[in-house]
Amino acid sequence: MSKVTINYYDKTSEDREVLDEEVPFPEGKLIVSRTDVEGNITHCNQAFIEMSGFTENELIGRPHYILRHPDMPAAAFGDLWNTINTKTKWSGYVKNLRKDGKFYWVYAVVVANVREGKLVGFASVRRKPSRTKINECIDLYKTMLAEEKS
Amino acid sequence: MKFTMTVSPDFSPDYIAGWYIFNTWLQKQTNESIHLELYNSFEKQREDIKAGKIDLIYANPYDASMLIRDKGFVAIAAPDNKSDEAMICVNNESDYHCVEDLKEKCNIATADDPEVSTIGMIMLEPADLNAENITVLEQKNYVMVAKHLINGSADAGFFLKEAYDDMSKFIKSQVRPIVTSQISVIKHSFLVGPSFFENSGINESDFKELLTTMHENMKGLSTLESMGFSLWNEQSQEDAEFMIDLMDTFVS
Ligand SMILES: Cc1cc2nc3c(=O)[nH]c(=O)nc-3n(C[C@H](O)[C@H](O)[C@H](O)COP(=O)(O)O)c2cc1C
Q1: CB of B108 within 8 Å of any CB in chain A?
Q2: Which of A88, A89, A96, B130 would you label with B251, given CA atoms 20 to 30 Å apart?
């Protein structure tokens, strides 16, 4: 087992277990969560809770980076936030970190929740990704991460 | 004033009579005159919705989006325990055991149901399949979809789970699901348009009360049963809006 220090965008950091073990995406399901405009989790469905390994209480109110995997380049999330802040749909492949240190890949689509013209939050709906696309992303994210570290 | 009610064309034909019974019940409860107009094509129904000819509708989630966001309809209720789930099925004797076993250029049989097709296409994504690299064989109904699987002219077919579950034992023994969606929040709902509230004596909260308590008396309960429902759960505008956001993530 290895602990990795993950530095978040808001200058906080956490030592998290990171294992090289994948958990398969649950067949036929969607992993759904909603956040406020800052990205703090306000709702999540059962599949989200099960896949993350956290309890609902541990998730609600927490920033969504609770799932951030150290193999994910910061630029991917920069692109996500730049896109959704203009109320445009974002989609991409994301490697997520579970509470137990294992990981799972998703294809995520993030949309703005607009009510009566006002932005009230965001929703992310994740579905089972294609293995071909994941393999492309593994290479791409490695390159991006190396650039970010240099 | 005479109002028009309609039902999404994907309802099960077993319940046609039930919708007429519901309409009679509703007219009595509301003291309004309501005509039930049923369609067998989504397209024709959508034309009439766009032309403002519909006041009340049991809508599929796909159309709910347009009705709520563009036409000012209000979400009233959704039947309990009835989410819309899709299945991808294959011939029972085929070697297909998961979606990833399906390959490019395969033939997919579908019925004319935009919602099931959307969810079905999403469930094909893990196999790198999309509209460009498969052949879609569009059928009139789910029995025809099953036929194409049984006679081998399609590799896989999309079904509404409810439609598959209602098929004969004989068909089900020959047609096997390889994946079933478990989305649970996407469902048909009963919507009422602004013209109804403007021109009838009923407001939104009274309407909600009417539907969500109808199972409490015998007449209401038997009406529900004739439509294949047990009861209506209240659906808030936010429930409906969120379902629409969710559906929105399905279109690229
Ligand atoms: C609706 C929504 C869903 C999100 N889902 C995830 C997620 O599943 N995994 C993840 O690592 N980040 C997710 N994010 C992005 C995080 O907010 C955060 O930007 C990211 O984890 C990177 O952390 P950092 O910004 O602290 O570096 C989501 C953001 C939003 C608005």
Answers
A1: no
A2: A96
